[in-house]
Amino acid sequence: MFDKDQTNLPFNRNLAPNFSRLFSRRSSIIKLTLFALFLGTIIWIIILKPLAESDSLSDFGVSAKNKKESTQPIWQIDLKKTIDERFSVYKKEQFTESALEKNRLIPVTAVLLGWKRTEGLQTVVNYISKYPFIKEILVWNNNNETRIYARDFSLNNSDVELSVFNSEENLHDLSKYTTCSMAKYDYCYFQDDDWLNLYMDSLYTNFLESPSLIHSNSMPTIYLESRKWMFANADKNLHTGFTWLGCGSFISRAKVQRFLGQLGTISLMKDRLKLVDRYFSLWTNQYPYQLSNPLTPLDQKDGWGVDQRNMVYNNILDATQKLYTALAVKSGSELFTREEEKPYYNDRVIRAPCLNDKCLFLTNIDPFPHPSRVYYANNITHVRNQEAKFNKLDFPSKFFWNNYAFHFAVDSDGQTCWNSFKIPKVGDYFGLQFVEPSFPKKVTILSSKDISNFNASFNIQVSPDGNKWRTCNITNSNNTDYTYNNSITFEFDCSNIVKNKRLIRFIRIEASRNFIEPFEICSLILDELNV
Ligand SMILES: *[C@@H]1O[C@H](CO)[C@@H](O)[C@H](O)[C@H]1NC(C)=O
Ligand SMILES: *[C@@H]1O[C@H](CO)[C@@H](O)[C@H](O)[C@H]1NC(C)=O
Ligand SMILES: *[C@@H]1O[C@H](CO)[C@@H](O)[C@H](O)[C@H]1NC(C)=O
Ligand SMILES: *[C@@H]1O[C@H](CO)[C@@H](O)[C@H](O)[C@H]1NC(C)=O
Ligand SMILES: *[C@@H]1O[C@H](CO)[C@@H](O)[C@H](O)[C@H]1NC(C)=O
Ligand SMILES: *[C@@H]1O[C@H](CO)[C@@H](O)[C@H](O)[C@H]1NC(C)=O
Ligand SMILES: *[C@@H]1O[C@H](CO)[C@@H](O)[C@H](O)[C@H]1NC(C)=O
């Protein structure tokens, strides 16, 4: 349906063919209405005079501000070497049409925006094409001063379809959504060209468990901030949150199409229309599933240097107010979803990808309060009012979180540690989800504290799906370091409960007694897997 290299895309001359995927598999009146709204939106944008203010504002959230505020040095890694060493444990053969009918894997379309950093874009395209679940890549170039072509990119996998579109005009954030709406597959992967997500397999693995939700990656400081930008009101069926999407996120195309319909119905001020990234996650009316991890910067020279915080605040508040107002109307209007999707907030125990991208850290111990603890009544005048209410609750400070965020338990560095912040009780747990099934027999826990009293304090449990857990027999527990008593090894036997070795995808270490201080876990070593 698409020619490669659609230079001078006939975007404003001949719209229909480009968006025919919108309703290729559906033919209902709803779709037609949606398309009309969508077309209206597009025409609305085309007649807008281009706005001077931004190229891709989403840069702001993670670069400009964070460079100043982060107390944690950005990881010094040899990027090229790291990229070369990364490969997917998923296989090409699992994503052929016939294989996909039998397995529960999901093919994905990557949507990338071009602006000025072509090299960054080339790096991203080459890198993500290694991951076989990325079956299609759509590059939308927002810069009318430069043209880019498919031949400017090198792919690592010849099975991926690459199409490049050159826009006559800078459609800013909006082009992510219009481009995703044309995707061949039901889910899109968003990624900007100034950060690299080195946790493709882990993020994808978690996405598979609940594909309808937004799955995003955030740096710990941004993660903390996003926890304050959640809005809840049970009476109004409001349960939503903000997340940045540009650091690698999986998104459902159906949600994107619905969003375009929302944009067509609720007219936004024209300068807001180009900043729709602030609206999308909030208007799904679901808390996004965010993982917290350090991100890898690419060339960021043409990004944002100025603090755009107020604009972010304004747009978040505007999005929330409009959502609240629409939900408050007790009509049959289904412009916004009312139902909260599963897994519910407290059941989302997956927290951070392992540095090696082979597993994910999980724990039920959430150091942050449930979003419903701050009641949103649509009478605040600034997001700071919301933050002020949140700040009265008990949660980690920025300093604490920068030093003890989840991923420090799984960064292969025994010197950096996750701290549970809360004091663990019977039944609290931490553990791992494996990207590939595993059959562990031994786990060593490394802490920064004396944990010689950990020996009789845990149950070891395994699960195929993260729902049904079975308890293994602990056959031996042993202090492995008598100098500091800060490591302990459990040997265990799950063969009595799990016959098929391919069936273990989750392991957790569950407290069998109440503790008197928070856990501080620096590393987990499972058989050969050292995280
Ligand atoms: C594809 O990825 C592999 C594994 O990282 C790497 O060795 C190889 O050089 C890449 N090939 C291309 C064409 O980028
Ligand atoms: C690019 O777009 C700007 C703003 O719409 C316009 O002023 C300029 O002439 C365009 N440049 C080209 C090469 O089309
Ligand atoms: C907002 O509404 C809530 C609940 O109705 C109320 O308790 C609060 O005082 C109101 N705040 C302001 C600033 O009006
Ligand atoms: C736990 O360790 C302590 C001290 O090393 C020891 O006295 C105790 O017997 C151990 N308990 C079990 C169940 O191994
Ligand atoms: C602890 O581990 C060491 C080395 O594996 C072993 O020799 C020793 O017997 C173990 N101690 C206990 C109490 O199991
Ligand atoms: C480590 O634990 C052993 C056994 O409980 C104890 O004898 C020793 O003093 C402890 N070492 C330190 C440094 O606390
Ligand atoms: C597990 O522990 C139970 C109770 O101690 C014991 O009866 C059983 O034989 C053990 N199973 C294995 C496989 O070690």
Could you explain the architecture of this structure?
By secondary structure, the chain is an alpha+beta fold. It folds into two domains: 26-54 and 83-329, Alpha-Beta Complex (Spore Coat Polysaccharide Biosynthesis Protein SpsA, Chain A), CATH 3.90.550.10; 349-530, Jelly Rolls (Sandwich), CATH 2.60.120. The chain is built from 15 helices and 23 strands. The protein has helices spanning 29-47, 58-62, 64-69, 79-85, 97-102, 118-128, 174-181, 200-209, 220-228, 253-265, 270-273, 277-283, 309-328, 383-391, 398-404; strands spanning 108-114, 134-141, 161-166, 187-191, 195-196, 215-218, 230-233, 238-241, 249-252, 289-292, 296-297, 350-353, 359-363, 418-419, 429-434, 442-447, 458-463, 470-471, 473-479, 487-493, 506-511, 520-526, 529-530. The strands form five sheets. A seven-stranded mixed β-sheet has the order 3-2-1-4-9-6-10, with helices on both faces. A six-stranded antiparallel β-sheet has the order 12-13-15-21-17-18, covered by helices on one side. Strands 14, 16, 19, 20, 22 and 23 form a six-stranded antiparallel β-sheet that branches. Strand 22 and strand 23 (529-530) form a beta hairpin. Helix 12 (277-283) packs parallel to helix 13 (309-328). The relative contact order is 0.11. One 2-acetamido-2-deoxy-beta-D-glucopyranose (NAG) binds at residues 452, 455-456, 477.
